[in-house]
Specification:
With 425 residues, this protein is mostly helical. It is built from 19 helices and four strands. A two-stranded antiparallel sheet has the order 1-2. Strands 3-4 form a two-stranded antiparallel sheet. A hairpin with a 2-residue loop joins strand 3 and strand 4. The radius of gyration is 22 Å and the shape is globular. The N and C termini lie far apart (75 Å). The C terminus is likely disordered.
């Protein structure tokens, strides 16, 4: 059946299915970072509509909460507070807009020259491993910084292990569309177990209204938060290019040409800015949705409009938001251990897929220094501003890539012309 003749009810049903696939990861980010889940739904819905407006509704993409920002948001909220963090996220959205302009003027190849895999790969790894301790602390029933105990150790470990095992089992063993729901499955099973163990407080759920306007948070401009957050956007911005190519491979269309990569990047950037303005997490193109499109063969972009509409409507259900906020810490901790490790694995895969030769001194220097700077917690005071974490790693990686000579030096350990020839007895 052609897209034009597809019944409205079927489009709506397909849109609900797309939202269901993206839902687990969509609400996980605000739950882990302390943002409002309702704002995540609202930001994803409005952001998707903005993306469709910029791309003339030609790309079947749904924008959901970006995992790359989880660890940086957690740190930024603890350091500068929520309003300053949202201001930093708004500034990060402008990086997308700048990249969109560069792509329009110079083409996508220019971006890859400035940020090749040897730069992007270790940055992604730092994003995943930088706050791995937070996931472990939560899995053990503690607060993210490990200073407070929320659930006793034995109970927390049991809940975290069951949540993690369920997520892994669904990701590895499930078939069809259910394989796209590992996070949602892990949360559901962990939540049910937590109810039986008496870890869920139903008083706030009962007190929450059925219909409630989400609480908006106004961003504040803070230079430290801005400088910290902007480099974080490098990784998802580059990932955006891969996502657009991937969905094009599924549908058989080249979206980098029509409507154009500059338009898709523009739409993503404006969506990130809008989400930050209303108090939600940054959004990005979703690999889960690409997988769902491949399985269901729902190539009609109108379906994503329905998914966005459903997300906006769900943002105003107060009790639903209260249920999400009642999920115990160990459930999230168990899933975060896999999630943060997966993000780091994406960075490693970036290096492997691009066949980055780690025997080359230049590549080894860039990757090694970025990893130690990020995981070791190096902090530099530059003009009164502290650079550390992902911000320091992003700037260092780009500068090293530009400064270090790109000549074909012999691999480390390789024999040179001066080496004595091997004699055969």
């Amino acid at each position: 059946m052609s897209e034009a003749k597809e019944p409205v009810w079927r489009q709506a049903l397909s849109g609900a299915q797309i939202l269901f696939v993206a839902f687990g990861a969509l609400v996980l980010v605000p739950i882990l970072t302390g943002l409002n889940p309702s704002m995540a739904l609202l930001g994803a819905g409005v952001g998707t509509l903005i993306f469709q407006l910029c791309t003339k509704r030609e790309v079947p993409i749904f924008l959901g909460s970006s995992f790359a920002f989880i660890a940086p948001i957690v740190y930024s909220v603890q350091t500068w507070g929520m309003p300053a963090t949202l201001g930093g996220l708004f500034a990060a959205g402008w990086l997308y807009l700048a990249l969109s302009l560069v792509i329009y003027l110079r083409g996508a190849d220019f971006i890859h020259r400035i940020m090749p895999p040897v730069v992007v790969g270790p940055i992604i790894m730092v994003i995943g491993l930088g706050l791995a301790g937070v996931a472990v602390n939560m899995a053990m029933g503690k607060t993210g910084d490990g200073k407070g105990v929320l659930v006793d150790y034995e109970t927390a470990i049991l809940v975290a292990a069951v949540s993690l095992a369920t997520t892994v089992a669904v990701a590895v063993r499930a078939k069809g569309i259910f394989r796209l729901l590992p996070v949602l499955s892990g949360v559901a099973v962990g939540y049910v177990l937590s109810i039986f163990l008496g870890l869920v407080d139903f008083t706030k759920i009962a007190a929450a209204p059925w219909i409630e306007v989400p609480t908006f948070v106004t961003p504040q401009f803070n230079w430290a938060a801005v400088l910290f957050m902007i480099p974080v956007a490098l990784a998802p911005a580059i990932e955006h290019v891969g996502d657009i190519v991937a969905i094009g491979a599924v549908t058989g269309k080249d979206y980098t040409v029509k409507p154009g990569l500059h338009r898709t990047m523009l739409g993503d950037g404006l969506a990130v800015c809008t989400a930050a303005l209303i108090g939600g997490p940054p959004v990005t193109t979703y690999a889960e949705v690409t997988g769902a499109v491949m399985i269901t063969r729902c190539y009609n972009p109108v379906i994503m409009t329905w998914a966005a509409g459903f997300a906006i409507v769900m943002a105003f259900f107060g009790k639903f938001n209260a249920i999400l906020q009642s999920i115990p810490v160990p459930v999230m901790g168990g899933i975060m251990m896999l999630l943060f490790g997966s993000i780091a694995s994406v960075g490693l895969n970036t290096l492997i897929h691009a066949q980055v030769d780690m025997h080359r001194p230049r590549n080894l220097v860039i990757v090694s220094l970025v990893l130690v700077f990020g995981i070791g917690g190096l902090s530099l005071n530059v003009a009164g501003q502290h650079l550390h974490g992902v911000s320091l790693c992003g700037i260092a990686a780009i500068l090293l890539n530009l400064v270090l000579p790109k000549g074909e030096a012999p691999p480390m350990g390789a024999e040179t012309d001066e080496a004595e020839p091997e004699t055969v007895p």
